[in-house]
């Protein structure tokens, strides 16, 4: 269905089994070479999407091998859903021009772009009163400007091509709660939550949906880095969580697939928490 049909409230023409299908959909995932980004890229490819994983060039612990191996051995999950694939590209989300060029390159190769997951992000644990200016600038550049530049680049392509796309911003539970030494990160994630709502208002008339996902603490290299500094932290944080533990990246698959697909066609401007009840 084109934008017109979506805006006219077109009745559902797809059976439930196809509701989550991403066959013939093209996606961009920033920070897609490891952690949550890679997990969500793999999930979308399993449901048939062609997924471009964008990351900084050759970071030492990028899981290039896993991406490549998976791309080579992509299982044919279901004949009805078809085969997806992963592609890799380099880019820096803080560079507006580079993100525009990345979206252009995808459209040039695939003819379209339907889904973006603005996932690239960093964390810092620094006391408020000591926060160096360059660190604060860096976290806002990557976690806030980088999310905007991703949404802009992809949103402009969707608008130009008349594609009723889905843009998903990875925020955090920390965007809604406060804790000591996480001010920079928490501030950046609050901005992502507001950005999601504002983009959703502006892009809805163009048929483009924008939603945020707010994960709780999830085991990735990001949390590993924080936990290395303080080994007792995981137990302390888990004790504050109703489910008593950290999440796994694969536990974000369901909500991301729902938001990426037609299954969530009347959902925009929403934030979905996946945080064990935190
Ligand atoms: P990881 O550190 O494992 O992955 C982050 C990815 O972002 C890496 O691939 C990293 O690349 C990439 N990246 C960083 N800066 C840039 C940049 N300038 N341009 C392009 N890519 C970049 O983190 P997670 O998987 O844990 O986090 C993914 C998202 O989820 C983040 O936005 C994070 O804030 C959010 N989140 C994570 C939670 C958690 O507990 N893990 C909880 C809530 C939210 P490189 O390999 O080069 O460093």
Automatic annotation (TrEMBL):
Pfam families assigned to the protein according to its UniProt record, in alphabetical order: adh_short_C2
Keyword entries, A-Z: NADP, Oxidoreductase
Coiled coil region boundaries: none
Domain of life (superkingdom): Eukaryota
GO MF annotation: an example: oxidoreductase activity, acting on NAD(P)H, oxygen as acceptor
Gene3D superfamilies tied to this protein: NAD(P)-binding Rossmann-like Domain (3.40.50.720)
Family: Belongs to the short-chain dehydrogenases/reductases (SDR) family.
Name recorded for this polypeptide: D-arabinitol 2-dehydrogenase
Organism: Mycena venus
